[in-house]
UniProtKB/TrEMBL annotation:
It is found in: Cytoplasm, Cytosol; Lysosome; Secreted, Extracellular exosome. Keywords: Cytokine, Cytoplasm, Inflammatory response, Lysosome, Mitogen, Pyrogen, Secreted. The lineage of its organism: Eukaryota, Metazoa, Chordata, Craniata, Vertebrata. Belongs to the IL-1 family. It comes from the Eukaryota. One of its GO terms (molecular function) is interleukin-1 receptor binding. This is Interleukin-1. GO terms for cellular component: cytosol; extracellular space; lysosome. Pfam families: IL1. One of its GO terms (biological process) is regulation of non-canonical NF-kappaB signal transduction. It comes from Amphilophus citrinellus.
Length: 259
């Protein structure tokens, strides 16, 4: 009878066990802790049942166990966990009336799909644009700023900021309202979000969430397109936005300022 260990070790070891007809061979590779533990238990049982000394070799059980323990490669299971992507979550929606610091209203020019700032004459109020302003919770809140999405009332058109080359531009895009319930911070949908930042008592600006330091603004001249601008531009960057009554009427305003 013999005990054979292969191929986990570089050499073949044989151990004669004085028990007729007993052959024990270890051939599992690579070794695992469970395999080693089972083998040790089996060997201890064999040793307990045999009172005669080991014959024909100087290789002892202690040597075998030492080699086996030195050859163990401990297996570890690594589970990769990634944090859920940061996202903006909508908290509510309010209907608003909007004017710039020159008391100009915004109108929609259908032919170009643009917003223009216009001083409306009496009887032209039906051309005025009203907004649905959705508010959001920022994944990492910014002091004195809150994310909002701005849609034109009774339409599925929303203001969005794109980068055309190195200059961000303001657009009106058709999108599903439900697609803006939650906006991942690393998604393209961030183009629909703007930071409402208060710069004084009831004074706010609307900065693009996608293009930092670029603001929704109106020109100094009348009947000009509403565009994005940097803080240094000679444009009006603040807006007076008055909330429309809905159920219990309450009013909030963004009072306009100039650059």
């Amino acid at each position: 009878s013999y005990f054979e260990l292969s191929p986990a070790f570089s050499e073949m070891w044989q151990l004669v066990v004085p028990c007729h007809g007993l052959d024990l061979e270890v051939s599992r590779h690579p070794l695992t802790m469970k395999c080693v533990a089972n083998l040790i238990i089996a060997m201890e049982r064999i040793k307990a049942s045999i009172s005669e000394p080991v014959l024909s070799t100087d290789f002892q059980d202690e040597h075998l166990l030492s080699i086996m323990l030195e050859s163990i490669v401990e297996e570890q299971t690594v589970i990769e966990r990634t944090a859920a992507p940061a996202q903006f979550s909508r908290t509510g929606e309010l209907q608003c009336s909007i004017t710039d610091s020159q008391k100009r209203d915004l109108i929609l020019v259908q032919s170009s799909m643009e917003l223009h700032a216009v001083m409306l004459q009496g009887g032209s109020d039906d051309r005025k644009v009203f907004l649905n302003m959705a508010t959001y919770v920022h994944p990492t809140p910014i002091a004195e700023a809150r994310p909002v999405a701005l849609g034109i009332k009774d339409t599925n058109l929303y203001l969005s900021c794109h980068e055309d080359g190195d200059k961000p531009t303001l657009h009106l895009e058709v999108t599903d309202k439900n697609s803006l319930l939650r906006v991942r911070a690393d998604s393209e949908m961030v183009r629909f979000l703007f930071y409402k930042r208060d710069s004084g008592l009831n004074i706010s600006t609307l900065m693009s969430a996608r293009c930092p330091n670029w603001y929704i603004s109106t020109a100094q001249d009348d009947q000009q397109v509403v565009e994005m601008c940097e803080e240094s531009a000679h444009r009006y960057r603040s807006f007076n936005i008055q909330m429309l009554p809905s159920g219990g009427a309450w009013v909030c305003a963004f009072v306009n300022g100039t650059v």
